Amino acid sequence: MSFAAPQRIIAEGDIVILYISINNMHAIEVKKQIMNKHGILVEYTHQTTYGALKVENLIGKEYGGKVELSRGYAYVLQPNPELWTNNLPHRTQILYTPDISMILLQLEAKPGSIIIEAGTGSGSLSHYFLRAIKETGHLYTFDFHESRVEQAKEEFKKHGLGDFVTVQHRDVCSDGFTEELTGVADAVFLDLPAPYLAIGHVVKALKLNGGRFCGFSPCIEQTQATCVELEKNGFLEIQTMEIIQSEHIVKDKHIPVIDLEFVKTKREDDILQTAKDQKKQPGKTKKVLTTIPPPMQPGHSGYLTFATLPPLSMR
Ligand SMILES: C[S@@+](CC[C@H](N)C(=O)[O-])C[C@H]1O[C@@H](n2cnc3c(N)ncnc32)[C@H](O)[C@@H]1O
Fold it and tell me: Which of 23, 54, 72, 187 has a CA between 20 and 30 Å from the CA of residue 101?
């Protein structure tokens, strides 16, 4: 039940995040035994770069606490969508937190929202939708890959989210969404190779008083085709954006103190000479808090296209 509500004590069956460092985390299921490669149940020991953890020992411990590994220690955290995105088993390419933040904001995902998503993929985005819309909302998520559908169903159930999500096996481009979803959705999100083929079905699924759409596409050609279809189908406020996360490094820097009186009275040559001398033999410096732009720009993930379907009376 580890995703459903805040929890103080770790219970058998929980999914926990074993946090060693920001770049070294593991999502593990708390259970006493595990099947080995010969199909025999054996004691569950999880291996890390700082040695082994007997997983059974986590039961009854407090979330946020420190646990001993055979060659070090780690912290055990209750998972949230952000931690899950960084540790989930990849069955497909996934969406990450920077893009997802904008999707949640633009689709106005909130408690009570009815949201349709296709494809489910690895369920990275689905976990954020579920956190935003439960307990009164519902997520309907579709994928045409049968085993991904089964894995996602199993995962949501294990995470205590099963009551707030319906996972269905369906090709939404050729068959649309299911009939009972006609006119019920507040928002529809598509992460598909050809989202433009499903826009007619999106119109049918959105509420009669309108709703929001978002499509994620890595290539501009997919985005262009989606925009054309959105316009043809009466969508307004069509907007495409790219989210580039740029983290600035904040650090103290020691910079030379400039004697302004000296600068005022001396000739340019003298000032240059003094600067050169100071480089060889630094004089007085001052500590200043600075921000440094990141050494590398993060790469492109995809284009997010948002649009509004107006109420039926205005279409
Ligand atoms: C990139 S993944 C989605 C990843 C997901 N957004 C996440 O964050 O984990 C795309 C998924 O769409 C599914 N898909 C592609 N075309 C589809 C279609 N026509 N109908 C339903 N699912 C489709 C694929 O099987 C795949 O699982």
Answer: 23
- Tokens representing 74 are 């780690």
State which amino acid sits at residue 55: V
**138 within domain boundaries:** yes
Cβ neighbors of 75 (< 8 A, separation 6 or more) are: 18, 19, 64, 65, 66, 67
Q: What is the CATH number of the domain that holds 69?
A: 3.10.330.20
Kindly report, residue by residue over 186-237, the tens digit of the pLDDT.
999 999 999 999 999 999 999 999 999 999 999 999 999 999 999 999 999 9
Which bin fits 90, alpha (ψ -120 to 50), beta or left (φ > 0)?
Answer: beta
Atom of ligand 1 minimally distant from the CA of 91: 27
User: Which runs of E-coded beta strand occur in the chain?
Assistant: 15-21, 24-29, 33-35, 41-43, 45-48, 51-54, 66-69, 72-77, 114-118, 138-143, 165-169, 187-190, 211-217, 236-241, 249-256, 285-292, 303-309
Query: Looking at the structure, do residues 213 and 117 belong to the same domain, yes or no?
Result: yes
Q: What angle do CA 144, 149, 155 make, to 5 degrees?
A: 155
Q: Measured between alpha carbons, how far is 28 from 241 in angstroms, rounded to an integer?
A: 35
Tell me whether residue 3 is in a domain.
Answer: no
Same structural domain, 89 and 74: no
- Whether 8 maps to a domain, the answer reads no
122 is in an annotated binding site: yes
The 10s digit of each residue's pLDDT in 12-60 is: 999 999 999 999 999 999 999 999 989 999 999 999 999 999 999 999 9
Q: 144 is in which domain, residue-wise?
A: 85-244+299-314
Which protein residue has the closest C-alpha to ligand 1 atom 3?
121
Instruction: Specify the number of domains making up the chain.
Output: 3
Residue nearest to atom 26 of ligand 1 (CA): 121
